[in-house]
Design a protein that fits this description.
- With 470 residues, the protein is an all-alpha fold.
- The chain has four domains: 62 residues; 113 residues; 136 residues, no CATH class; 116 residues.
- It is 80% helix and 0% strand.
- It is built from 15 helices and no strands.
- α7 packs antiparallel against α8 and α14 runs antiparallel to α15.
- The longest helix has 88 residues.
Amino acid sequence: QGARRPASSEIDKRLQNLKKEVATQDAKHRKTLGELEKGVDGLFDSFARLDSRISSVGQTAAKIGDHLQSAESQRETASQTIDLIKYLMEFNSTPGDLMELSPLFSDDSRVAEAASIAQKLRSFAEEDVGRHGVTSAVGSANASRGLEVAVANLQEYCNELENRLLSRFDTASQRRELSTMAECAKILSQFNRGTSAMQHYVATRPMFIDVEIMNTDIQVVLGDDGPQADSSSIAEGLSILYKEIADTVRKEATTIMAVFPSPNEVMSILVQRVLEQRVTAILDKLLIRPSLASLPPVEEGGLLHYLRVLSVAYDKTEELAKELQSIGCGDLDIEGLTESIYVSHKDEYTEFEHASLRQLYQSKMAELRAEAKQQSESTGSIGRAKGASLNTSPQQLISVTVVTEFVRWNEEAISRCTLLFSQPTTVAANVRSIFACLLDQVSQYLTVGLDGARESLNEAAAMRDRYVIG
């Protein structure tokens, strides 16, 4: 037991020493951790300051970049302005002298650039002349006179350049070089929005300048019969011709879409030209309006022939207009344009329709009188006084077949009316007047027939009396 006490005491002492060492080491570690935490905090602060400085430097660099870009833009603008002033001075040198201009204005490879610059110079010079034109100051007047020289020279140069481009465009068009045509059209769009190029292209299409095509058009529609061709043949001819016109416009549309910056405007000009020139030229040959003072003979078709041709021509032209609209005609009011072609004929339509119905009635009555006279002569019957009345049986004097023919004329007239007019009030008024013609014709026919029947009965009674007396 005495031996165990020294050992226990030794262990306690060592344990105490270890505790002290642990406490010492723990204190050192705590101190080190504290210092590390402070160091990390300081490092984060340094990073934050560095990030702030980097951000500040970035913003400064961006501002410097913006300033440099602005300065470069201003430098380019200043350089361009200097060049424009130099070019303006060249155009302002001598009236009508375009020989001393910079090579830019005669270089075919830089035509687009030259056109752009010339347009800018002309706009500036014209604006300046216009602004000083209302100023009475001497200095301003002198400046204005100086720029008037530039305006005149620029106008002359632009005209010359436009003609060069149109010539190049024509050459490319003949060779079907669509890329060159498109390039020229794009440059020409700077001159009056390209109107001259668009109109020039349309005007040079073969269907507008080839006399043979125009003559063929008439031959296709009228054939060998000329103006006396029947309406069904004319309708067939118009269908063939209008299909050919639509196919031609469709082919032109393909080229126009590939060449022009504003194809819809070109299509509008093309379709308008087709209707106003080619179609109108055909209709002028077809729709020869007869004189109401001297009606064409019924044997040659009478007024009815004109009305039937008017009807089929209007119908086929409307079909063509719808087909052209489906192909494309820009902002063109194609319906209004089509109506304008026929406006003079439609204005007098009602008068001609009534005159035609009267002519048909008079012709039919003359035919019936002639038949009655022939029958009377062949049977040896007694003729009517002055040959004015029908001399036949009551059944023949009033015939359902004849009245049915009146109705058929009326139906045909109404079908024309509803085709030519779309306004309900106009259609209603015309149909009413046409129906009134039918009623008048039936009334006259029945009156004449009844009068004839009465005269026949009177004559029969007189003959019976003579026979009885005899």
